[in-house]
Amino acid sequence: MTETCNEGIITDAKKRYSAGVLKYRQMGYWQPDYEIKETDTLCLFRITPQDGVDPVEAAAAVAGESSTATWTVVWTDRLTACDSYRAKAYKVEPVPGRPGEYFAWVAYDLILFEEGSIANMTASLIGNVFSFKPLKAARLEDIRIPVAYVKTFKGPPTGLVVERERLDKFGRPLLGATTKPKLGLSGRNYGRVVYEGLKGGLDFMKDDENINSQPFMHWRDRFLYVMDAVNKASAATGEVKGSYLNITAGTMEEMYRRADFAKELGSVVVMVDLVIGWTAIQSMAEWCRANDVIMHMHRAGHGTYTRQKNHGVSFRVIAKWLRLAGCDHLHTGTAVGKLEGDPMTVQGYYNVCRDSYTRTDLQRGLFFDQDWADLKKVMPVASGGIHAGQMHQLIDLFGDDVVLQFGGGTIGHPQGIQAGAVANRVALESMVKARNEGRNILEEGPSILKKAAEGCSPLKAALDTWGEISFNYAPTDTSDYAVSPTVA
Ligand SMILES: O=C(COP(=O)(O)O)[C@H](O)[C@H](O)COP(=O)(O)O
Ligand SMILES: [Mg+2]
């Protein structure tokens, strides 16, 4: 598929710039012999051209519409350094095992993006091009962001190393729980749930994505009761505790108001939902940086555009943008829980959050090397339908630098919320100890848990209630190179 010459480009200026419509490849958006620069942003798109549309022309169109082009020749190109500003599609390959789909690699010059602005970068890369008629579908699969551009972002306000220092917690995953029911509790009842969870042994409790300031619980009531619970649980256990106060609101002014109040009450953490948008995320990261507060990011809404293989934006790209934009915690999936997530693909997201340098790893969906240029690391959050009986799988999949969050798997415990938290903490500590002793936790996990449960009735009850619960459905978003990688 890849061609070795610039076939198609019209170089004669008179012909190139006479008014009319040319093919994108004739305009210079297809350059198979293009030499990638270290300062280029590289994108891998998965495109499904309409029947009869040449994949190379479709790739050139993607490069054109996501950079400088419009549908017709414009003489004003000649007032610019258009040869370098034009994005270049430089390689097209059929996707293995997916007839009609092609991978198209496109390079973008550094000058095309404003420094430190995900809003600006995304307005180019996913601006018009996903609605383009010659394509049935398009997906941004992966991105390589050049160090020169990475250095224009401040990244996570706290980062996972400093977070551990502030919390004084090392050598094990952190534990959390989402307060349930998501909606409807009064402030006082809500605070009670938070206290029970933290007192039982969790490090964090968490507001859910859709709890903001509804009539049943004004945000100030929630913040007051939650912080009362946090302080009492810290005093009772001698540990630093936190509860992610969701400051998501309808305006920036209101979000700042809520963040200020959270800080005033002594919260170590605030939370926002991905749906607030890139600019709001970058602004809240600035606020968190200035106020020494951890920023928890719930990826609410992402499944609308990340899940389907043929259209949208892969979550690995969203994770890369979020690390640049700045968040300290990021929901990245569980693989074993109730929500979408192929294990290898999910591990790829974790690598994006925690690596200093991410290596190409096709089986985990990573198509490029990514140098993070010492940008701080994001703490991934595994959350969604998990329970103590899966502890060995979770630690085996994700290691120590992760928040394991059991919402229903704490609050639904038959002996109460505090018992649910105890079960999770005991399961976690037994599994970490077994791993540190060199045991194969993936194989021995169930027996390690059973043994630990002999001395812990809450863990026994958790295993009896949920031990057999699993969510075995075929994942939607898997690597196309899971069996034998063919692209270098
Ligand atoms: O409320 C929950 C989980 O509750 P529970 O633990 O009771 O299932 C979170 O919103 C999900 O983690 C979001 O999904 P993701 O983390 O994949 O973004
Ligand atoms: Mg939720």
Automatic annotation (TrEMBL):
Occurrences of domain Ribulose bisphosphate carboxylase large subunit C-terminal (ranges): 160-466
Domain Ribulose bisphosphate carboxylase large subunit ferrodoxin-like N-terminal positions: 29-149
Catalytic activity: D-ribulose 1,5-bisphosphate + O2 = 2-phosphoglycolate + (2R)-3-phosphoglycerate + 2 H(+); 2 (2R)-3-phosphoglycerate + 2 H(+) = D-ribulose 1,5-bisphosphate + CO2 + H2O
Keywords, alphabetical: Calvin cycle, Carbon dioxide fixation, Lyase, Magnesium, Metal-binding, Monooxygenase, Oxidoreductase
InterPro entries (UniProt xref): RuBisCO, RuBisCo_large_chain_AS, RuBisCO_lsu_C, RuBisCO_lsu_C_sf, RuBisCO_lsu_fd_N, RuBisCO_lsu_N_sf, RuBisCO_lsuI
UniProt modified residues of type N6-carboxylysine: 206
UniProt: substrate binding residues: 128, 178, 182, 299, 331, 383
Superkingdom of origin: Bacteria
GO molecular function: ribulose-bisphosphate carboxylase activity
Residues carrying the site annotation Transition state stabilizer: 338
Family: Belongs to the RuBisCO large chain family. Type I subfamily.
Subunit organization: Heterohexadecamer of 8 large chains and 8 small chains.
Functional description taken from the UniProt entry: RuBisCO catalyzes two reactions: the carboxylation of D-ribulose 1,5-bisphosphate, the primary event in carbon dioxide fixation, as well as the oxidative fragmentation of the pentose substrate. Both reactions occur simultaneously and in competition at the same active site.
Record's protein name: Ribulose bisphosphate carboxylase large chain
Annotated source species: Hydrogenophaga palleronii
